[in-house]
User: What shape does this take?
Amino acid sequence: MNGSTVVRHSVQYGFKRTDFPSPQSHGAFVILPEKPADGSPWVWYAPTFVTGDRPLPKPLHEWYLRPLLEAGFAVAGVDVGESWGSPAGRTGFNEFYHLVTRQFALSSKACLLPQSRGGLMLYNWAAEHAECVRCIGAIYPVCNIRHPQRLETVCKAYELTSEQLLAQIDRHHPPERLAPLAAAGVPILHIHGDRDEIVLLENNSGDLIRRYQALGGPGELIIVHDKGHEEVPEYFERPELLEFFLHQGASVACGS
Assistant: This one.
């Protein structure tokens, strides 16, 4: 990946945004609050795209991110392309994590906000760095790497054949990589619709939360009835998810 070499300053959600180069990526961003909360909590959103005509995050996410910024959270993300949680993407994530926690003095424990394919990205990183994760609050996240309609795309990102990928599935399939997160007591909250035909509820959030609870992990699933893979208030204006992050950020401040 060719990282951006230009630092750019702008305003997003009413707060100062800085876009900057990050190794093994197309670039990264941080939005800083006017006054950081105790412990310098931050939300890491994925997938992030800083290039092209469909940047993420976007205005849709303001309902969550503006109140968090007002509460003293930073918001950040890195563009590792369509990595789908591949080892190369995880390397880019890890370099970004060390860069922002050092350069911007953010908490060593990130609050993760994966959406859709951001699920594979952040869960596969989190499984290898559970000590760096405060909580995970997800919106219809992709958790199932085996889905046949997705396998070809994932294999391309991993630079593996389907046979090779399935032979090492335990290294890349989030529901089978939850033990470190459960041992660390990382709280997880998923919001997922029962009419989602792109990221099926049972094969993704349902399976992951069920397995996490079986491991003793604090996991919760909110099922949105009669909604699919949509950009609607039932997902993107959810008080429970906002309160989840605010509460966990306060826990960071308390050092727990």
Summary: The radius of gyration is 17 Å. The longest helix spans residues 87-103. The chain has one domain: 8-253.
